[in-house]
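Our platform keeps sequence and structure together, in a single record for each protein. Such a record has a labelled line for the sequence and another for the backbone structure tokens. Nothing more is needed to write down the fold, since each code stands for a local backbone conformation. For reference, a complete record is included directly beneath this paragraph:
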Amino acid sequence: MIALLAALQTLALILVVLRLLPGRRRRPPIAPAPAGMDGSSVSVVLPTRNEAHRMSPCLEGLHAQGAPLQEVLVVDSGSTDGTVELVGEVSARDGRFRLLHDAPLPAGWVGKVWALQCGLREATSEWVLGVDADTQPRPGMVAAVVQAAESLGYDVVSFSPQFAEMSTAEQWLQPSMLITLVYRFGAAGVTDPQPDRVMANGQCFLARRAVLEAHGGYEIARQSWADDVTLARALAVRGVRVGFLDGSRLYRVRAYASAGQMWREWGRSFDLSDATTRGRQWLDVAFIVLVQGAPWLVLLAFALGLLRVDSVASLTLLRTNQALVVVRTLMLLALWGSYERRSMGFWLSPLSDPLAAWRLVLSTARRPRGWRGRTFALGAPAAVGERSRAGADTPADQA
């Protein structure tokens, strides 16, 4: 058993190093750009449902954007908490803002994806930029994302965020969950990964409107809880040039109110089951268990005397797990810029790796049915529960 575990972890260590090596050549974070780009136009589509408690920074950040932003289409799904009034206040000051109400949710659609589809139908610009209510744009974000897409030749490109206002407990847990994505799919800014391993982030997701419409818009991802990744991979497989870049200088996010909410809601879908074949999904789980779930437990067993260095296999097991912990600790330097501030929780986050691996196992074993306290059944009318914005903060929204 020790020899088998040592062999599997050694292979997993080699694989994780190979996946991380391209990160040395990844593109640096995209910098904000001055407004005033000629020849380009952008329609922002912002799906909302009871977002009044957190969307003001998003609205004000968009209000501060100059050209090429042409319009902001806020697609509301029956909010009852003052969201509509907030949008009305901004639209009174900025004529680019327009409030829309999505049509009744069809069978087989996730609520957020349907809202995006409704917004796409109303968009008039060359580019469509999907953002979430927790996105807090910095000045120059819209100009920068279009400039990056055009200069790098992408028809579809999304951007990772900078995480802000996180508690110590959140910073202890969230980096470990984020690392599972990096270990599985690589870092933001890596050039042209395999189409079926492309990552994406719906918090800042830019696409040429003509390309989206040519492929049916967001319908490809209509039943997905990870709609951003599902859409990006489907388009990449069809030959569309898709990118995923570091947007930590462009916007910040405060996605969850607590570590517990993060565990429940992000943890439900960060397995990316809707964007990955079932077999590949479980191979990814086994990989994460070997490189993140097991190392601290194995080293603890050696420290407690439950395992002893009495053979070549046991020595290999010890050294492999020590190496995996070193790699994981060094990843804190790679994540540095993705956090607005770094508490002691961030520096101790490698210790939460076994929990992150366990959460991935749970997520993979059970497909979610609800989001933020709401439940619905895919393929059923909106009368099941109530209309949902499920998928609003998908796993790559945290990458």
The chain is about 45% helix and 15% strand. The first helix runs from residue 2 to 20. The chain has a mean pLDDT of 89. The domain at 26-167+186-260 is CATH 3.90.550.10 (Spore Coat Polysaccharide Biosynthesis Protein SpsA; Chain A).
